[in-house]
Input
Amino acid sequence: MKIEQLQLKNYRNYTQLDLTFDDTINVIIGENAQGKTNLMEAIYLLAFTKSHRTPREKELIQWEREYATIKGEVHKRNRNFPLEIILSAKGKKAKLNHLEQKRLSEYIGALNVVMFAPEHLSLVKGPPQIRRRFIDMELGQIQPRYIYHLGQYQKTLRQRNHLLKQMQRREKQDPTMLYVLTDQLIQHAAILLERRFTFLELLRKWASPVHYSISRGKEELEIRYSPTIEVSESANREKIETVYTNKFHELQEKEIERGTTLAGPHRDDLIFYVNQKNVQTFGSQGQQRTAALSVKLAEIELISSEVGEYPVLLLDDVLSELDDHRQSHLLNTIQGKVQTFVSTTSVDGINHETLQEAELFHVKDGVAHT
Output
């Protein structure tokens, strides 16, 4: 899988951009605030229809312009097809093969992307929402239907929280509507949890040996899922629904008292253990970074095993954050098999044959050239 061409118009600080990329390594070089990360963000947005940096899409449209477009020519499964994102004050359109896709689940997965940026080093030690977002984004790529159920869950959750808030204030007492919303929430929650359990099993399979290798055989990584209900990872959907039903019955008074939903996938977490110790709490910064890198490298292999092709890898200003050993392990892993985009202020100090063979793009003031 690869992006052969990228075109930007009125996007961030790019008035017009048209680039053709190398099949293997593309290095984006430039000083800070010149447009390196904007270019990486555009590729990410082409895959996921949303930015990893801001939820406010009007920030992506160039000042005093009415719209912005991102177009990409993608090669996947021995064929080429165009992707396009159009951003405007009226909203967002996502086109696959020139046809607008009304549902995200019909678009996401066309281009598979793994991004590794400095903020992803906080995947292990950061707040739980970072890890939930990681699961949702990666699982959505390999099972687009997951995106649909996630959207339905979030919509129902907002409605249920609104009702609970009204019941808390005694503005409305509607136990029948609460029952209906709870039932709808449970149906989608059970699907999300079942699929997250399956995803975690795959992630463990790939991340554990990667971590063992990076740590030179000194450390073993274990990843556990921490749900808000007591249920086995081997439980089927029907069993999960039953456990959720009992849990919400148990929590009903407390939820009305607090005005919010107290259980469900939106409150779950991942816990990382290195040599049986919680690395979030007791691990060194080096151990936390190794765990984060292991998970990111595992993502690449996981997507490849599920989709049948390697995803596109975005390394946004992250190489300088890794020591020589982790840097070399990362570059050795991707060498020759993953189309990679590396953004950096300089390639000095990165002495690896992978980068010696790279296509170099210099970025300054929203203009990129080879």
Remarks:
- The CA atoms of residues 190 and 240 lie 6 Å apart.
- The radius of gyration is 22 Å.
- DSSP finds nine helices and 15 strands in the chain.
